[in-house]
Amino acid sequence: MTLIATPTTEAAPHAARTVRRRRGGVNPRLRVVPLAVIALVGLAGPLVVPHDPETVVGPPSAAPGAAHWFGTDSAGMDVFSRTVAATGTDLLIGLSVMVVATALGIAFGLVVGMNEARDSWWATPTRGLARLVDLVQAVPFLIAVIVILSLYGTGLVAMIVVLSLLLSPVQFRLTRSEVLRVRGEAYLDAARQAGYSEVRLVVRHVLPNAVRPALENTTVMFGAAIIAVAGLGFLGVGLAPPTPEWGTMISTGAAEIMMGRWWSAVFPAAALAAAVAAVVFLSTALVGDDRVR
Amino acid sequence: MRLARHRWWLARLAMLPVHLAVFAVAVFFLVRLMPGDPVLTIAGPNAEIDQATYDRIAADYGFDGSVGEQLVGYLGGLVGGDLGDSLVSQTSVAAELSTRLPATLELVALGMVVACLTALVASYIVVTRPRTMVARVLRVWARAAGAVPEFVIGVALITVTFVWLRIAPAPVGLTDRRTRVGDPVTGAPLLDSVLTGRFDVTASILAHLWVPLVVMALAFGDLLTKHLVSQLETSIDSPVTRFRAAVGVPRRRILLSVYRRALPAPVTVLGVMFGALLGGVVLLETLFNFQGLGQYALAASNAVDLTALQGFLLLTAAVSLVVFLVTDIAVMLLDPRRRPGAGGTR
């Protein structure tokens, strides 16, 4: 489910016809609205929630009602407050991972793409790096995350670092293949003749022409990060328990479902699905926009 | 030369041990770079140990000597199939993993089969009956691929099938508690029950398995459908298809050819999807309380059992590399232009 953005983009030229055939649809600019609403909930939500999300505020397993809109979980914590408070945590991780993974991927993609075919001592190590990245992608993503986080600790920062490192290969490959395309263009030779330094050349001409696929893919990074955090929480190896987090809530709520008390799992599950759907909705706009052009 | 004709897959096969070795070394350093002293981690957080005990633990778990000596000892063990002993249970990690692997692989394989069948049926409907309501719904479902993680679908389906409709058993294992399962033959429960002729067990397993299989069809079939449909729409409009239609080739044969030309890209996706399925199965095993690699890995994770985690990571990486190899070769069989040296792109 998560990282399979790469083949999608590889298949992109063939898909052009499908997209064009689609009639109507929402204005691409408006597709940012659902995610913006969720971001607003993440930012402002914790300030306005009716109860403290990390303490027991009512009887355990109370059904949804006036006192507790989404009911309470098996410990007696307010499901509504926790669902809202978790939005901030998950968005923070998603956003950080998106930025760090994309920056890393683009930087390494530029360096490797520009150097791997060059006749210098520098070419071999960069090619080696490219092969190594291919190998990192061979490990199932979620399994790599579980193992590495249990070795290195599951704090917020460790989680962001590990998810970024494991997701950056996707961005790296997208950028690298674009750099390989751009590096043969005539305008680079022109700039070289004009006396541009290699660094200036890369920053002014290669970078702007090679980042587009990676930037379009940022939403996929975001979604993958949120799903991974929730998956870890669901497995019980994510952020420490009192921290409100959708995956952890779904996992503790799943046991409640067996007794017919559906609310403590269903609301966080719906929130998670809504957040990822908002991201997917936006990403179809980004990619679709490009193809319709 | 005979050999030269087979070079395309032999070369690919020869890379496998190299990749495995690189992985093994990478995992070795991953564990060695862990913050803190591994020997103290093994001894436990509050243990006060003297130098002799420290040295003994270090020697037992291969943490003595220089990094080079440790690496050689570790790689030597790997070649002999020795993944070390678990820090918690003191049992052989290789033995523990190999008893659990078949059950998990069986679930992954079944998941792949249902996802492929779903994609084939869905893409057939979308491509041959594009104007129907069903096709439109399927299209939206495929386009939203990956939007809802498998454990959310799992929780939702359990709620509907077990809590509301009462048409599925409680998600507390693979068989009813009363059903006595025979001794394992291959370790894969469904296969074993068929091999030993215990069809009552087979029925019980299938009754417990259909909900997770529907979850996997919904969670992983969408991505395959998306890629298959996009490829099918390209190949159905191609001059090759037009030519076949023009010279009067029967519709069935045309469709077969369209599917054959559309397959390479989705098969590549299938290889990538295997990793996602393996991760997804770990989640589903937890949700449905199935015995398998997932439970072992989670126990190891909670106890920071270094050797067990290391072995688990190596095993999943090795399985994934083999699957990548198989999909690469399958793609090259389907489309000879993709073989190295065939003069295509890359």
Write the layout of secondary structure elements.
The complex is a heterodimer of chains A (293) and B (346).
Chain A: H1 5-10, H2 12-21, H3 33-48, H4 79-115, H5 123-136, H6 141-152, H7 156-182, H8 186-193, H9 198-210, H10 212-216, H11 218-235, H12 246-257, H13 263-292
Chain B: H1 2-5, H2 7-32, H3 38-43, H4 51-60, H5 67-79, H6 93-128, H7 133-143, H8 150-164, H9 189-195, H10 199-236, H11 239-246, H12 251-262, H13 264-288, H14 293-302, H15 306-334
Folded structure, characterized:
- With 293 residues, chain A is mainly α.
- Helix content of chain A is 71%, strand content 0%.
- In chain A, helix 3 runs antiparallel to helix 13, helix 4 runs parallel beside helix 7 and helix 7 runs antiparallel to helix 11.
- The longest helix of chain A is centred in the first third of the chain and has 37 residues.
- Chain A is elongated, with a radius of gyration of 22 Å.
- The two termini of chain A are 28 Å apart.
- By secondary structure, chain B is mainly alpha-helical.
- Chain B has two domains: 78 residues, no CATH class; 240 residues, Orthogonal Bundle (MetI-like fold).
- Helix content of chain B is 72%, strand content 0%.
- The longest helix of chain B has 38 residues.
- Classes of the chains: A mainly alpha (293), B mainly alpha (346).
- At the A-B interface, helix 1, helix 2, helix 6, helix 11 and helix 12 of A face helix 2, helix 8, helix 10, helix 13 and helix 14 of B.
